[in-house]
Amino acid sequence: MNTAFSEEDLAFQQEVQAFIKQKYTPELAARAANPKTFKDAQIEWQKILFEQGWIAPNWPAEYGGTGWTPTQSYIFDNERAMAGISDVVPFGLKMVGPVIYTFGNDEQKERFLPAILSSDDWWCQGYSEPGAGSDLAALQTKAVLDGDDYIVNGAKIWTTYAQHADWIFCLVRTDSSGKRQSGISFLLIDMKTPGIEVRPIHTIDNYHSLNEVIFKDVRVPVANRIGEQDAGWTYAKALLAHERVSIAEVANSKRNLAEVKKLAQQEVNGGQTLYSDTAFRSRLAETEIELMALEYTELRVLASVSRGETPGPESSLLKIKGTEIQQAIQELRMQIAGYYCGVLGQDDIGHEFGSAARQAYMYGRAASIYGGSNEVQRNVIARAVLRV
After folding, report:
1. Residue 293 pLDDT more than 70?
2. Exposed, middle or buried, 82 (CB in 10 Å: 0-12/13-18/19+)?
3. CB within 8 A of 374, min separation 6: which ones?
4. Catalytic sites, residue numbers
5. What is the pLDDT of residues 266-281, one digit of tens each?
6. Number of structural domains the chain divides into
7. CB 183 within 8 Å of CB 238
8. Cα torsion for 39, 41, 43, 45, to the nearest 10°?
């Protein structure tokens, strides 16, 4: 693999840097960091990307994608991360959007894709249930056909940003008579539909991003079903492959690891920095080596996606190693912050870095579970690669 940037790539990198410096203002960054103004700030930034034509690097150009090479996508993602900018909210642009343009009909593409690209519609994901998480085929939310509608009853849980969402894409059970995977359908549901209730879940990091979504006699037009009835498992697997690639968060981990290096050389304990500790430096180096290896794997996957291929079992590998590396970096941050991590309460109490390190560590424990637990991903790899 040739890792040297061409002159065109270097010119594109400079263009991205200049664009970010001009458009991502300190005021916008402050609002994006505040949970109370996060949604408005995120939508504003995504609309800026949309107006620039940079909102969907992985979409085909015919549907509004950028037409970038894998190298350009890599450059943009790294510059975004190094500037401390959150990635786009994935549920519309990286999950349901690709499902719609791949498996949806022309009417669905015309109806939904433009609003996803412009961020006029905010989406959330209705997969996990109280009794069906990594074993997603155990889902019990039912959709019963009634004329031109489905009547949906059940519950979804751990639904990120459902409190903000305009739409939810859901896996629902439309047949219970055969194999579990064969009786599932993929529905697009308007969150304003009567019978939908969103119940907040406040997590241990003291933030509200997760929710439980209850469906009670919710009527959903058959026209909002993607593909064939009972064939939703096929579409769900394609979506999960894209989701797991995103969960790897290589660019964000590179920025966070650089921050760890910097902080470890500043925090002094007993007259010495933590970076001078051989054991700490060894652990840091091991994490950096694993991250470099993961980055090359991600580049290979990006190259295959650019050729129109769907990520295969390598998406599970990215998910496993990506989340393990994220957690390793979070543990290093906690080690640097030390006792400062023990301050609980409001965000503005105590040591700023310690509070941020604690919150990232607490929420980060879920990374190896959501998107399909890492144990399940190892089973996926075993079946797909080792044929066991």
Report:
1. yes
2. middle
3. 319, 320, 323, 324, 368
4. 243
5. 877 778 888 888 999 9
6. 3
7. no
8. -150
